[in-house]
Amino acid sequence: MDKNGRAVKLAKDTLDEIGNFGFDNEAYAETICRGHRTLQQNWMRMSLKTIAKMAEAGDKGLYDDRNESAVKMAQKIRDAIGDDVLPYI
């Protein structure tokens, strides 16, 4: 499987998992924050890219009541941080 395919699979698997009733957000966050420092940086970079894409979708009106709050929050975050990017370390 190529990189693009792996990324798509991971995204779909993540969405499936967090959609399960009882997903433990606290344990997930704690595990990420205790992970390898470079991997934490990579995770944050990926998260910020996701936020930027969600904000762009909101700019185009591509949301509804189910994700409006997430889109609006993504736009606020994007507007607050601008084009800042995290370096690869």
Keywords:
4 helices, single chain, about 90 residues, about 70% helix, about 0% strand
Explain what you see.
This protein has 89 residues and is mainly α. It is built from four helices and no strands. It has helices spanning 3-18, 25-33, 37-59, 68-81. Helix 3 crosses helix 4 (68-81). The longest helix has 23 residues, at 37-59. It is globular. 4% of the residues are buried. The model has no long low-confidence stretch (mean pLDDT 95).
In short:
The chain is mostly helical.
Percent of residues in beta strands: under 5%
The total of beta strands comes to 0
The biggest beta sheet reads: none
Radius of gyration: 15 Å
Helix content: 55-70%
Write down the overall geometry. globular
Order of helices and strands: HHHH
How far do the termini sit from each other?
Answer: 26 Å
Structural class: mainly alpha
Q: Please, what is the average pLDDT?
A: 95
Number of helices: 4
Topology diagram in text:
Elements: H1 3-18, H2 25-33, H3 37-59, H4 68-81
